[in-house]
Design goal:
- 45% of the residues are buried.
- The radius of gyration is 29 Å and the shape is globular.
- It has 730 residues and is an alpha+beta fold.
- A six-stranded mixed β-sheet has the order 1-4-3-2-5-6, sandwiched between helices. The chain has a four-stranded antiparallel β-sheet with strand order 14-15-11-16.
- It is built from 30 helices and 16 strands.
- The two termini are 44 Å apart.
- The longest helix is centred in the C-terminal third of the chain and has 35 residues.
- Helix 2 packs across helix 3, helix 22 crosses helix 29 and helix 24 packs across helix 27.
- The protein binds a DNA duplex (9 and 15 nucleotides) through helix 18, helix 20, strand 10, helix 25 and helix 26.
Length: 730
DNA sequence: GTGGCGTCC
DNA sequence: CAGAGGGACGCCACT
């Protein structure tokens, strides 16, 4: 059950007056929909009427900041094609108004004309919170709410727990809001001296379960995946999560760094929320939420649900006004939420003994290297400290400084050590030590510590609103940067295992970003090189060097590969030269030949840059949008960086869209099977555990759905590997 | 909290 | 002329 959109309501009633009259007659119900449709309240006479008719008082957002109130009103009318009212307003003119809006208009001069006033600084006015927040501690009070929850057009909910790790969290209370300003908190496990009697967790979850599990009741959360996971560990399988204010903000403008509720409330509602630290303290002095007194807890928890609802009312209409963004939100991001939740809950089985064995081996070798390094330097020092390393290498040993850090210091990174490795024995020792130290601290030891004692698995968190391009990210632990390049690192993957009778299956897209570049650019040469199904880099080398593919040398192939990848990142001839360890002239020559053979690629990149400068954003194939504020920067380096990002984002972002679509298709297919689970996503790869007897069927089904996730001008090729562990599956 | 470094796609 | 490779997460040292 979705609320009607503004356009539908206005179409139905014809005039704003008629709509308001209808709202008056029916009262809250229409008011609810109206609020969803028109969350902003321009200070015009017409909309003051709405304000009176609805309890909502959302602060002005970007629309009002960058335009006068009357202009904002006009834009709303235009957006909803509300002709009669528009004419009326035009007759009265749309003179700019004074005050904060005027300042914002001035601010707009920097970027507004290029559409970058899409969002702006926090609005000056707050809505008049708090609303009516009810504390529920009796069965009667809870029962009185149940029908309201069922009948809500959108049910906002939130859980309060004992941990930010959903796999370990215990629920201490649940809150919900059904209309702005009307929210409730149901504590179930607050325990402190003098704590009032509360309903039990079992009784409350038992009463709410039919509602949470009813897919026809549209639910809303802020970062709902967390609450879905928490409720899942409590035996409640949440369905029907149709909205998530965090993802609405992310799709609306992914460039905004933070999409947490406090930031969003400030930004879009002009409202300062109660901070968690204010009620529970922070650091060593913090107390569990269950020890927060019920009055304070109610103000905090009910506000969470209330603000979530208000954010949705502010953000969702803005998405509705952008059909392509709305599609990304409704058809990609929201369907992905329960899928990611499931992957996180399932986790990946880890062979912890294997990790321990590897850790010991690494430690042994590190001690040897340490001794050798001390002897080589003539004294002991901390090999993990770049600062001490710098003193030993460049001050004491007097080795030449070939590479500097961005702050101008002599660098001790891999490139720097390689550059002086022939002049002294120490750099080699350091290089090997560094590699091993990295493997042990970041992978073998850390991964082992992340294994959940209850499940024997690692349960990563996939962050859905972090990467500006639309990619997912993974944390705690990060499963998207497990080593693969070197054999000793790659062995870490031997610890990612399947249970007895099951296999690990890894399915990855072959050169997906290159294929997207071919598709978006339409370059005939590149399309041909990718359409033939052969070795793309070899084919590129053949084109660039003008010789048959079979005569291409290893060096020529790797040069072509470096160009193929480098171009997608906006690399220059200088960068290519460094990458391939050749001189700049040669690198320029390669790139010139590349562009001569693939002129469509050059044109596409140039077109992307100019479109980005014109609009202030770039888009993926599916309409996901990335704003690039720094395109307008006066700082040349920043501007150049933004241009590279502008060229890269459509490819990286389209790849992200495609694999997300694939995940949705695959998840729908495997939903009714009990012989396969999707475990991991690593940008162009999906990893499953598959029962042995189902391997062939699943291989076929997964390839079909991943390949079919987009129709490009070149085929989407998927490679599949199967093995006892992730290492073998590649 | 920042800088340096290193892992992945 | 200067600067020169996109997007992440996380470890360690150091302030």
């Amino acid at each position: 059950m979705r609320p009607k959109t503004a356009a539908k309501w206005l179409a139905e009633y014809g005039t704003l007056e008629a709509l308001i009259a209808a709202a008056d007659k029916i009262g809250g119900k229409i008011g609810e929909n109206l609020r969803t449709a028109l969350p902003r309240l321009p200070l015009s006479k017409d909309l003051v009427t709405i304000r009176i008719n609805t309890p909502l008082e959302v602060g002005p957002t970007d629309l009002h900041q960058r335009q006068s109130d009357n202009e904002a009103l006009l834009e709303l009318y235009r957006r909803y094609d509300f002709k009669a009212a528009l004419k009326e307003l035009e007759a009265g003119g749309a003179a700019p108004t004074a005050g904060s809006a005027g300042e914002a208009v001035a601010d707009r001069g920097q970027s507004g004309e290029r559409g970058q006033s899409h969002y702006s600084d926090p609005p000056p006015e707050a809505f008049s919170a708090p609303g009516e927040y009810e504390l529920i501690t009796t069965r009667e009070a809870l029962d009185a709410w149940l029908p309201r929850l069922r009948e809500a057009s959108v049910l906002a909910f939130d859980t309060e727990t004992t941990s930010i790790d959903p796999m370990r969290a215990q629920i201490v209370g649940v809150s919900f809001a059904v209309e702005a300003g009307k929210a409730a908190y149901v504590p179930v496990a607050h325990d402190y001296p003098g704590a009032p009697t509360q309903l039990s967790r079992d009784e409350v979850l038992g009463a709410l379960k039919p509602i949470f599990e009813d897919a026809s009741i549209a639910k809303l959360g802020q970062h709902a995946k967390y609450d879905i996971n928490v409720l899942s560990t409590h035996g409640v399988n949440v369905r029907g999560v149709a909205f998530d204010s965090m993802l609405e903000s992310y799709v609306f403008n992914a460039t905004t760094t933070r999409h947490d509720m406090d930031s969003l409330a400030t930004r879009y509602l002009g409202y300062t929320t109660i901070k968690y630290e204010e009620v529970a303290g922070k650091g060593a002095k913090s107390i569990p939420f269950g020890q927060v007194d019920l009055d304070t807890a109610t103000r905090y928890a009910a506000e969470d649900a209330d603000v979530t609802l208000r954010l949705h009312q502010a953000l969702y209409p803005q998405l509705q006004a952008e059909p392509r963004l709305l599609k990304v939100y409704e058809e990609i991001e929201m369907p992905l939420v329960p899928i990611l939740a499931k992957m996180e809950q399932r986790g990946v089985l880890i062979d912890i003994d294997e990790l321990r064995r590897q850790s010991q081996q690494l430690g042994k070798r590190m001690v040897e290297l340490q001794k050798q390094a001390y002897a080589s330097a003539g004294h002991e020092f901390n090999m993990d400290s770049p600062k001490q390393l710098q003193a030993v290498l460049f001050d004491e040993l007097g080795l030449p400084v070939r590479v500097k850090t961005p702050t101008g210091q002599p660098s001790t990174n891999e490139e720097a050590l390689e550059a002086i490795a022939d002049a002294h024995e120490l750099p080699r020792k350091l290089l090997e030590y560094r590699g091993l130290a990295k493997l042990r601290s970041t992978y073998t030891d850390k991964l082992a510590s992340n294994v959940n004692e209850r499940t024997g698995r690692v349960h990563t968190s996939y962050h859905q609103a972090v990467a500006a391009t639309g990619r997912l990210s993974s944390a705690d632990p990060n499963l998207q940067n497990i080593p693969i390049r070197t054999e000793e690192g790659r062995r870490i993957r031997q610890a990612f295992i399947a249970p007895p009778g099951w296999k690990i299956m890894a399915a990855d897209y072959s050169q997906i970003e290159l294929r997207i570049m071919a598709h978006l650019s339409g370059d005939e040469g590149l399309l041909r090189a990718l359409g033939n199904g052969g070795d793309v880099h070899r084919a590129t080398a053949a084109e660039v060097f003008g010789i048959p593919p079979e005569e291409i040398t290893a060096n020529q192939r790797s040069a072509a590969k470096a160009i193929n990848f480098g171009l997608m990142y906006g690399m220059s001839a200088f960068g290519l030269a460094r990458q391939l360890n050749i001189d700049r002239g040669e690198a320029s020559d390669y790139m010139a030949r590349y562009f001569a053979r693939y002129p469509g690629v050059r044109d596409f990149m140039e077109a992307t840059r100019s479109q980005a400068h014109r609009d202030g954003y770039v888009e993926t194939l599916f309409g996901r949008r990335l704003y690039l504020e720094e395109l307008a920067s006066r700082n040349q380096a920043r501007r150049a960086g933004a241009e590279r990002a502008a060229v890269n984002a459509p490819m990286q972002g389209t790849a992200a869209d495609i694999i997300k679509r694939a995940m949705i298709a695959v998840a729908a297919w495997i939903e009714t099977r009990d012989d396969v689970h999707m475990l991991m996503q690593v940008h162009d790869e999906l990893v499953f555990e598959v029962r042995e007897d189902a391997v062939e069927a699943v291989r076929e089904g997964v390839i079909e759905r991943m390949s079919g996730a987009a129709e490009l001008a070149v085929p989407l090729i998927v490679d599949v590997g199967v093995g006892a562990n992730w290492h073998e599956a590649h």
